[in-house]
Amino acid sequence: MNAASQSDAVAGLSRRHVLEGASLVGTALALSPLSGCALPAQMAGDSSVPLGPPNLSPQSMPVQLQINGQTHQLTLDTRTTLLDTLREHLDLAGTKKGCDHGQCGACTVLIDGRRANACLCLAVMLDGQEITTIEGLAQGTDLHPMQQAFLRHDGFQCGYCTPGQICSAVGMLGEARVGMPSHVTVDLAASAIRLSDEEIRERMSGNLCRCSAYPNIVAAIRDVAGAKA
Questions:
Q1: What is this structure's pTM?
Q2: Where do the DSSP E strands lie in the chain?
Q3: How far is it, in rounded angstroms, from Cα 126 to Cα 133?
C-alpha cells in the first residue's frame, strides 16, 4: 500500500471508531485468563447467555426474635438491620438512630447480655438470641438501677443518646464483673475489674454525648458499680 492509500485509510477512521476499538481491547485484556477471569460469553461468541445485570432483587425470610422477653415472628428483607426492625417493624423507638454507621453508640442494645450496635446487626442473624432494649430494662414501673442513677446524677441533657448510654453501661458492668480487660486495665489476669473513673471513661468511649454530659454519666455508672461491688 502506497503512502496515499495509507493516508486515505487513516482518514476514513473516525475518533469514535478508534475509542471503541481501544475500549474493546482493554476489556478483553482485563478479563483474559491471565487475570483469573474468563471472557464474557458475549465476547466469546456464546449468544445463549442473556445480556443484562445479575438478579439483585430483595430477598425475604422468616425470623423469630426474642426481644425483652417476648417472641416476635417476622418476615424481613435479609438486609434489614436490627435497629430498623426495632423502630420500623416493632414500634420500639427507644433505641435511637444516630450515625447509622456504628460510630456514636446511640443504638446500643444488649444481645445475650453483651452490648452491640443495633445498626450494624442484621436482624435475620439474631434468630433465637435474647435481645434487650432500653424498654426491657425496667420491671414494670420499677426502673433499672442504672436508669435510677442517670436520673439521680442528671446524666443526660437532650436525652437522645441516653438509651444507648444506659444499655452500654449495663453491658459494661457485666464485662467488668467477669474480668474482661479494657485498654487501660493494669491487671489483665484479674477475675473482676474494679471500675475506676478511667476504666469507666475508656469502656464508655464508644457512646458519644453531643451535650457533653460525660462527668454525670461517669458518676451515675460509678454509683451503680459501687453498689454492686
A1: 0.75
A2: 60-67, 70-77, 108-111, 114-117, 130-132
A3: 14
Ranges in the chain, pLDDT < 70:
1-52, 54-56, 227-229
C-alpha cell at 82: 436490627
**pLDDT value at residue 136:** 97
Q: Which DSSP state fits 106? A: T
Residues 114 and 12: their CA atoms lie apart, in Å, by 71
Residue 8, pLDDT score: 47
What 111-114 contacts at long range (C-beta under 8 Å, 24+ apart), as own/partner pairs, is 113/171, 113/174, 114/171, 114/174, 114/175
Q: CB within 8 A of 198, min separation 6: which ones? A: 184
Q: Are 164 and 106 in contact (CB under 8 A)?
A: yes
The pLDDT tens digits for 59-95 are: 999 999 999 999 999 999 999 999 999 999 999 999 9
Residue 155 Ramachandran class (φ > 0 left, ψ -120 to 50 alpha, else beta): alpha
Determine whether 35 is exposed, middle or buried from the number of CB atoms within 10 Å of its CB (0-12, 13-18, 19+): exposed
- Which amino acid makes up residue 182? S
